[in-house]
Amino acid sequence: MDNKIKSLSKIAENRRMSSDSGMALVLILLVCYAFLGIRALLIAAIAVLVMDMTVPIVFLPFAKLWFGFSRISGSVMSKLLLGLVFFIVVTPTGLFRRLLGKDALRLRQFKKGNGSVFEARDGGYTAADLDKPF
After folding, report:
1. Secondary structure (DSSP) of 26-79
2. What pLDDT band is residue 7 in, cutting at 50, 70 and 90?
3. How far apart are the two ends of the chain, measured CA to CA in Å?
4. Spatial separation of the C-alpha atoms in residues 8 and 14, rounded to whole Å
5. How much of the chain exceeds pLDDT 90, in percent?
6. How far apart are CA 69 and CA 51, in angstroms?
7. Crossing angle between the packed helical segments 2-36 and 60-85, to the nearest 10 degrees
8. Which of 29, 118, 121, 133 has the most CB within a 10 Å radius?
9. How much is the CA Rg of the chain, to the nearest whole Å?
10. For all residues of the chain together, what is the average pLDDT?
């Protein structure tokens, strides 16, 4: 019984992937038609749409390729965008703070001595401190 449910789930997932990929292909063809104005692209988009609505499993090979490409591209782009944010935002901020002489981590004080730079906090806490900690 469990294998039958897994099999039906896989079929439904493949059908959904195929249908989504067919719709993406329709969108690509329509965008190409909008920019290039080639009538054959519009006819192809209509044909692909009809095929996607009637027999979406036809697009399964394209779906596997499309989703594989999107997985790879998502992995690469996320690392690229995070790297860009780091070098465009974080690095200049750090350099600017260093030029101003800011030392939020107290690294200079830590390097001067052998002791810790942690502050001892022996104060008591009240219920109001826990209601709004910030």
Report:
1. HHHHHHHHHHH--HHHHHHHHHHHHHHHH-GGGGHHHHHHHHHHHHHHHHHHHH
2. low
3. 54
4. 10
5. 41
6. 23
7. 70
8. 29
9. 29
10. 85
Question: If you search the block for the tokens 């192809």, which residue do you land on?
Answer: 44
Cα–Cα dist 6/99, whole Å: 61
User: In this structure, how many other beta carbons lie within 10 angstroms of the beta carbon of residue 27?
Assistant: 13
- Give the global pTM: 0.55
| Contact between 28 and 41 (Cβ < 8 Å) | no
- Residues 3 and 7: their CA atoms lie apart, in Å, by 6
- CA angle centred on 13, ends 11 and 16, rounded to 5°: 110
Report yes or no: 64 and 18 within 8 Å, Cβ to Cβ: no
Contact 58, 51 (CB under 8 A): yes
